[in-house]
Amino acid sequence: MNISLLDGATEEKLVILRDITWEQFKGIEAQLKDNRSVRLSYLLGILEIMSPVGPLHEYVKRTLSYLLEAYMKFLGMRFYGKGGFTLEESGYASGTLDESYCIGINKETPDIVIEIIVTSGTINRKELYKPKRVPEVWFWKSDTIRIFHLNASGEYEEVSRSSFFPNLDPNVLLQYIAMPDQYDAVQDFERFIRQGN
Hints:
Layout: E1 13-17, H1 22-31, E2 39-43, E3 46-51, H2 55-75, E4 79-81, E5 86-89, E6 93-96, E7 99-103, E8 112-117, H3 125-129, E9 136-141, E10 144-150, E11 156-159, H4 170-177, H5 182-194
Parallel strand pairs: 8-9
Antiparallel strand pairs: 1-3, 2-3, 2-6, 4-7, 5-6, 7-8, 9-10, 10-11
Helix pairs in contact: 2-4, 2-5
C-alpha cells in the first residue's frame, strides 16, 4: 500500500485484561468516558483497551466509506450512514464499530458494520455483533477485505461478495484504497463504475 507514510505516526497500543466482570468493565468505561482516544471492547470477561487510533486506521476507514457511499449513490440505493458507535448486549458484549450503514430504511441496528483492523486483539470481533444480529460485517486488515454474512442459524460465514452489493468485487475497492491520494481515488472509482466495469 502506498499510504505507509501514515502508519507509525501514532502507534496503536493494545492492553488486554482477562476475567473482568461486566460491572468492572462498566466502571472502567465510566472512568474513561471523556477520553476519546481510547476504544474499549468487551466480550465474555475479556476487555481490550486500544489507544490511540492511528492515522492509517482513519485513512482506510474514511476512504472505504467514501468509496461505498459513491457506489450506493451511483446505484440509487437509499442508505443511512450510522458512523461509529457502541453496540452493546448487557452482560455479554460491547464494541465500538468503525463505520456502519443502514440500507433502505434507517434503523437502530445497522445492516453493514465496517471494522478496520491495524492492531489485532484476542476478541473475535464478529461475536460482538451477533447479539444484535447485524446482517453483515466487513473487516479490512493488511490490505484485505473479508466479508461475513449472518446466516439463518445466527452464525457468521465468510462470503466473497456483499449481499447488499453482489456486483461489487471487494478487490476493486482495495485498489482504490491503496492509492496515495484519497480524493483522486474516489474520483477514479466513480469514473470506473460509471463506465460499467
